[in-house]
Design goal:
Layout (H helix, E strand, L loop, with lengths): L3 E4 L3 E4 L3 E2 L15 H13 L4 E3 L13 H9 L7 E6 L2 E2 L5 E2 L7 H12 L4 E7 L13 H13 L2 E7 L3 H8 L6 E3 L10 H10 L2 E2 L15 H10 L3 H11 L13 H9 L7 H6 L2
Parallel strand pairs: 3-4, 4-5, 5-8, 8-9, 9-10, 10-11
Antiparallel strand pairs: 1-2, 6-7
Helix pairs in contact: 1-2, 1-9, 7-8
């Protein structure tokens, strides 16, 4: 199993990346975390070989004082060669600080421009169109107009690669008829394996499949006797085996575990060196 993946055919990245959502706050509406710790985590991630950071302009503390994109720019700009930064657009902030699922294509340009400004770049490596809220949108909701708007910005050079988030196989097919889709970000992990149709479509087309909440995100428990048994066999932690399983599930899967802790960062990135045996995979089935 290779530890690398060529995103969109041209961006070679480590299959273990980093999710920035937990840098500003431990929970979406929680209090701000120490920004210096966030910057230290980002710098250490790059030192450990992370070259794929997943973020969004709406990743922020509840009071808006600490923002993931700002931390990334402060810690890493000018960005090292080969670092890929992915972001997502679609949701919009509500007056109370929450998020609403945006469906108007007209809002996408200012959202893309916000990411360009806050990250301090002229072009974004990868932009996901995120649809729906916490759960996937209703069946039959079209992504065509919104994806066409992002595709137009790709033609302008504002975006290099396009992705989709929180979508089904129909959305993926609809978008691919408009422009290349280079990554899909859906909810999938060792304890939630019900997105196999989209994963299969991605694998067949060589599209990166990048699960959000790869360790459950506090919404699901990835622990269990089967994972614990394999973890003991490898002298590893349960989260490490959950990440190793994710990478072993398909050659197109990437992992973007997020943390605001240096210790957890070290643990997560070390999971990339774990090679699961056929016996392990059988135990985890």
């Amino acid at each position: 199993m290779s530890n690398d993946f060529r995103l969109g055919g041209d961006l070679l990245i480590n299959r273990i990346g980093f999710g920035a959502m937990r840098l500003p706050t431990n929970s979406f509406h929680g209090p701000a975390r120490d920004p210096e710790t966030g910057r230290a985590v980002l710098r250490r991630a790059v030192e450990l070989g992370v070259d794929h950071i997943d973020t969004a302009a709406f990743y922020a503390s509840g009071d808006g004082t600490v923002r993931a994109n700002t931390l990334i720019r402060e810690a890493l700009h000018p960005y090292p060669a080969g670092l890929v930064i992915a972001t997502k657009v679609g949701p919009v902030r509500t007056p109370d600080g929450g998020l609403a699922a945006g469906t108007d294509p007209a809002v996408l340009r200012p959202l893309v421009e916000e990411n360009l400004e806050t990250l301090g770049v002229d072009s974004l490596d990868l932009v996901y169109l995120r649809i729906g809220g916490a759960e996937p949108p209703p069946n039959g909701e079209s992504v065509a107009e919104r994806f066409e708007a992002l595709a137009a910005m790709r033609e302008e050079g504002l975006i290099s690669h396009l992705g989709l988030s929180n979508v089904d196989a129909g959305h993926l097919a609809e978008a691919r008829a408009i422009a290349p889709v280079d990554a899909v970000q859906n909810h999938f992990h060792a304890a939630k394996r019900d997105d196999t149709d989209v994963l299969a479509a991605c694998q067949e087309a060589g599209i990166a499949y990048v699960p959000f909440f790869p360790l459950g995100g506090g919404l699901s428990d990835v622990t269990g006797d089967r994972i614990a048994k394999v973890a003991e066999r490898h002298g590893a932690t349960v989260p490490q085996i959950a990440l190793a399983w994710l990478l072993a599930s398909s050659p197109v899967t990437l992992a973007i575990p997020g943390t605001g802790s240096l210790a957890h960062l070290e643990e997560n990135t070390a999971a990339g060196s774990i090679v699961l045996t056929p016996e392990d995979l059988s135990d985890l089935t």
